[in-house]
Design brief:
Strand order of the largest sheet: 1-2
Strand content: 5-15%
Largest sheet: 2 strands, antiparallel
Number of helices: 22
CATH topology of the largest domain: Lysozyme
Helix content: 40-55%
CATH architecture of the largest domain: Orthogonal Bundle
Amino acid sequence: MQYLITNRLRRFLLFVSFLTLISCAQLSSKPLGKSLDKPLLIAPVVTAPIDVTPVEPIISKNAPVTSIVEKNLWQRLFALYQLPPIINKRVQAEINWYVKHPAYLQRVQKNAAPYLYHIVNEIEKRGLPGELALLPIVESAYRPFAYSHGRAAGLWQFIPSTGRAFGLNQTWWYDGRRDIYTSTHAALTYLTKLSTRFDNNWLLGLAGYNAGGGSVSSAMRKNSRLGKSTDYWSLPLHKETKHYVPKLLAISTVLANAEKYNITLLDIPNAPYFERVDIIKQIDLARAAELADITIEELYVLNPAFNQWATSPSGPHYLLLPVKKAAHFKELIAKLPDSQRLRWVRHKVKSGETIGQIARRYRTTVSQLKQANAIKNNMIRAGKHLLIPTANYNDALYPNSVAMRKDAIVNKTRKGHRVEYYVKPGNSFWSIAKQYQVSVRQLAKWNAMAPGDTLKVGQKLVIWGSHSHPNANVQLTSINKHQTINYTVRRGDSLYLISKKFKVTINALKRWNTLNKKYLKPGQKLKIIVDVTRS
C-alpha cells in the first residue's frame, strides 16, 4: 500500500514538472520587447552634474527589439556604442555648438547617408566602438572631396604618407584616400592599431589618429615624469587634439539623444546603399554612368577616388554602384567590347613634339601612352601614329575630375587674365609665386592643391592676375611682396634664429606676436610677415 501511494505521488510530481516546463517555454517564445516598458536603447550614460536622459526611440514602444535593429540604422549604431560615458566642460562645449547648428547636423547626415551602412557594418564586424562611424563627421563632415591645408583627403582625412603606409595608392588616375571602400578599411585598421598601442584605451587611440601616436606617447611620458596622470584629459596636447575627442563624444551623445536636443534624425535604412561591382579593366566614367543608368554626379558620389575621366588602367578595377542598379550593369558590362570602354584617337606625331606634350594634350599619362603603343623609352618619331585612349565626352561631363574641380575653384576666385604655366625643373610653389607676383596660398588654391604639395616637371598650373608682370607677356595681380605665415616654434629655436631664418627683426617678431618674454616654447605659434622679394 505504501509503495502504491509513493508511486502515485511520483507520477503527480512528474506531471506538475511537465506543466511548469510548458509554461516556461510559452513565456520564452514571446518577443523580448513585449516584456519591456521601453524598447532597448543604448545611449551614453551621463555623469553628474549634467543630466542627459536617453530619449524615447522613434518607433513604437511595443515593437520588439529585433525590429529596431532591422528597420533603423541609427538604433543599430547606438547599440554598438562602447566609449566611456564622459561629459565634462570640453564635451559640453561641443554639445552646445552642435545643438546651436541643427542645419549643419542635417547636412552631415545627408552627406553620410550613402556611406553610413557600409561603415557601421565594417565596425560591427570588427567589434569596434560604434562611435567610430561618426568620426568622419569630425574629420570631413562626411565629404569625400574634403581636402585640408595639411594635405589630408577623403572621409577619413588621410595625409599622403599615412595613406601609403596603409595601402592607399595615390596616382594621377586614382587617390585611394578618397576610396570609400578601401579608406574605411584602412582607417579602422589604423584606429585599431592605435588603440592596441595604448592598451585598448580608445580616447588615447583617437587622439593618436589626430596628432600621431608618437605625439601622444611623448605627452604621456612628459606627464609621467612630472608625476601627473597620463589619461587623455590630463595630457598637454595641441589645441586641435584637445578638441578632437570631445567633438566625437559630443556628436555621439547628441545624435543618440536627438529628441532631448530637438534634433531630427534622417531616416537612413538599415540596408546596403551600394554594391561593389567588378569592371575587369579600365572604363570611361561617363560610359559607366550610362550603363548603370545613373548620372555622372551619382557615380562620383560613390567613386570619388578617380581623379580623371576614367578608372585607373592599373586598377582598382571595381566601381561602387547603387544596389538597385548593380545587376543590370553587370549584364551590360559583361557584353561590352573593349572598343566601347574608351575612345581611341589616332594621333600623328609632329616635328618637335614630345610624348609628354601629347599626353598632356589628351589628358592621359606618358606611361599609358607607352603601354598602349608598346614604346620602351620616351623616344617618338615625327610622322609616326600613336593610338591614344581619351575621354568619350567633353570635360564638362566629368564634373568631379581633377581638371573640373580645379576649374571650379579657379572660376570662383579668379581675377583678371588666366595663365597656364608648365612646371620646369627646379620650380617650387615659392619660386613660381614670386615670379608671377602672387601668394603661395593663392597659387595652391587656384590649382586645388596645398602649399606643401610636391610639383612635377611638366605639370600644368593655372595662374590668375590683372597686373602686367615685367618678365612675362601676361596679365597678373598687383604686386604682393609681403605674405603672412604661421610658424610653429621647434625645439632649439630662439627669436634670434627665427629672425635670421625669415630675414626679419626681433622687434618685429615681438610686435607681431605681443611677446614679452625672452624665451619661446616648442609648439608655440608665431605670426611672421615675410618679404618674398628677399628670399
